[in-house]
Design goal:
This protein is α+β, with helices and mostly antiparallel strands. It is built from twelve helices and 21 strands. It is globular, with a radius of gyration of 21 Å.
Length: about 425
């Protein structure tokens, strides 16, 4: 089966769905290919920052987003002795939404999918796995894929790679990455129950490891941070030893940790920090994690990917309505989005070097003392890290063609990875 479209987006994550929605609102024919049959996958990036919340308001989706099950984090605090010090206070931002919303990513993607399907030029094809790029005269003209109807190919003026840090399209294109050291890995798991908001993003540190708690609706999502390359060792020790680690880091969670039945419930994330030297080749553009893998520090990954999608749609909607973007027009997307990418990755690497690695080595229990003293003396300074985490450098506004009046909220179609909700195709 062979089909044609104007813009082919590979990957139905936040970047792919935002790009698809914006381009469809510009009247561009868009097809999104998602390899999974639904959006219900656990431990994806679930932090929706003020920059993305502002974007949803501009798209007319704020009220519908607010109706989704969520918890809200207004500040990031670090325990220091018997007290805590606020590192970032999002309430100090000059925005109507001074918080981070913790929302299951599948609910956000269902919301974006539903909105995009209201546009006549939008198509989403689930359970469709890309297998190769189509080339003609040195230019990418589409992809080969496997789906419910068997093998096929889709041709397009532009193929947009939004297929994540393990991007097949990036690898097939031959685009080169620059990698940076990342000496940590993360392990994600759930614990039952709830916790006060002061637990949110407040690391609990011990030698060689620490964990961060994310209060969610009806459960706690935990990030356990340890040294890179120790996943096999952690699993060999077994679930009983892992429960003991949790109890040492946070004694108040010792009983809850008994709910973990096996290490299969603990999901490993290989932390990487890298970025492409060039984000495009003729006919193909990489954005989001496909262009730059981020550390989980700050939870900025999906929000930076969303900003990439907005920047790309803003610059490329016009060329796509004509003959398609030239390589020079594709290069403009990287120029527009490179500074925020470099700033975030540089800050993450500094935090790794000066906070995370010393904590894991047992040399420090929190941020450097001069930083703690400064933030305690001048609380208004917490607006600076709040801005860098919550809004970021060069945060994007929705292009004018995508703005809509507020839409009434609707009931979400899924509430857990085991529910039956799925996206339309």
């Amino acid at each position: 089966m062979s089909t044609d479209t104007t813009c082919l987006i590979v990957g139905g994550g936040p970047a792919g769905m935002i790009a698809g929605l914006l381009l469809a609102r510009a009247g561009v024919e868009v097809t999104v290919l998602e390899k999974h049959a639904d959006f219900l996958r656990d431990f994806r990036g679930d932090t929706v920052h003020p920059s993305t919340l502002r974007l949803l308001d501009e798209l007319g989706l704020g009220a519908r987003f607010d109706a989704l099950p969520q918890s809200r984090l207004e500040r990031v605090a670090f325990p220091v002795g018997e007290h805590s010090v606020t590192i970032a206070d999002f309430r100090r931002l000059r925005t109507s939404r001074g918080y981070i919303a913790m929302v299951p990513q599948w609910d956000l993607l269902d919301l974006l999918s539903d909105s995009a399907h209201e546009e006549p030029t939008f198509t989403l094809r689930m359970n469709t796995r890309v297998t190769d790029l189509l080339w003609e005269d040195g230019r990418v003209v589409g992809v080969c894929h496997e789906g419910p109807d068997g093998p096929g190919e889709t041709r397009a003026r532009l193929t947009l790679a939004c297929d994540g840090r393990g991007s097949l399209l990036r690898d097939l294109s031959g685009l080169q990455r620059r990698e940076f050291p990342a000496e940590i890995d993360a392990w994600w798991f759930r614990l039952p129950g709830s916790a006060p908001q002061e637990f949110a993003l407040a690391p609990r540190a011990g030698e060689g490891r620490f964990m961060v708690v994310f209060p969610r609706e009806g459960y706690l999502q935990i990030a356990y941070i340890g040294r890179k390359g120790t996943d096999a060792q952690l699993r060999e020790r077994g679930i009983a030893a892992f429960r003991e680690d949790i109890a040492e880091l946070a004694p108040e969670f010792a009983e809850r940790a008994e709910a973990l039945g096996s290490m299969d419930e603990v999901k490993h994330l290989d932390v990487r920090v890298d970025r492409l030297r060039r984000w495009h080749t003729d006919g193909l553009l990489c954005i989001g994690d496909a262009a730059h893998a981020m550390s989980p520090v700050g939870g900025v990954g999906i929000n930076l990917a969303v900003q990439d999608a907005v920047g790309a749609a803003t610059l490329l909607a016009g060329p796509l309505r004509k003959d398609g973007p030239t390589p020079a027009e594709l290069a403009r997307v990287r120029r527009r989005r490179l500074l925020p990418t470099v700033v975030v990755q540089t800050l993450q690497r500094l935090i790794h070097r000066n906070v995370v690695t010393p904590i894991l080595a047992g040399r420090r229990a929190g941020p450097p003392k001069p930083v703690v003293g400064l933030l305690r003396r001048f609380p208004a300074l917490t607006r600076v890290p709040a801005f860098l985490i919550g809004m970021g450098v060069r945060s994007e506004h929705a292009p004018v063609f995508a703005w809509r009046a507020p839409q009434a909220p609707r009931a979400p179609r899924s509430t857990s990875p085991g529910s039956s909700g799925s996206a339309r195709s």
